[in-house]
Amino acid sequence: MTRLSTAPPSQAQAEESPRRGLLQALEIDLRVFGMVIALAVILIGFGAATNWRFLQPVNMVNLAVQSVSVAIIATGMTMVIVAREIDLSVGSIVGVVGMTYAFLMARVLPDIMGFDNPWLWIVALVAGLALGVAIGAAQGFIVAFIGVPSFVVTLGGLLIFRGATWLVTRGVTISPVDPAFRMLGGGPQGSIGGTASWIVAGVACLGIVWLLVSARRQRRRFGFPLRPMWAEAVVGTVSCLAVLGLVWLFNSYKWPPALAERHAAQTGITIPPDGLPAGIPWPVLVLVGVTLVMNFMATRMRYGRYVFSIGGNPEASALAGINTKWTVMKTFMLIGLLCAISSAVATARLDGATLDLGEGYELYVIAAAVIGGTSFSGGIGTIPGAVMGALVMSALAYGLSFMGLSSPIQDIVAGIVLVIAVAFDTINRRRKT
Amino acid sequence: MPEGVPLVELRDINVSFGGVHAVDGVTVDLYPGEIVGIVGGNGAGKSTLIKTLSGAQKPDSGQIFIDGDLVTIHGPMDAKNLGVETIYQTLALADNIDAPANVFLGREMLTPLRTLDDSAMEDATRRVMARLNPRFENFKVPVQSLSGGQRQSVAIAKAVQFNARILIMDEPTAALGPAETEVVRGLMRQLKEEGIGIFLISHDIHDVFDLADRISVMLQGKLVGTVNKDDVTIDEVLAMIIIGKLPEEVTETELRDLHG
Question: What ipTM does this complex have?
Answer without folding.
Answer: 0.89
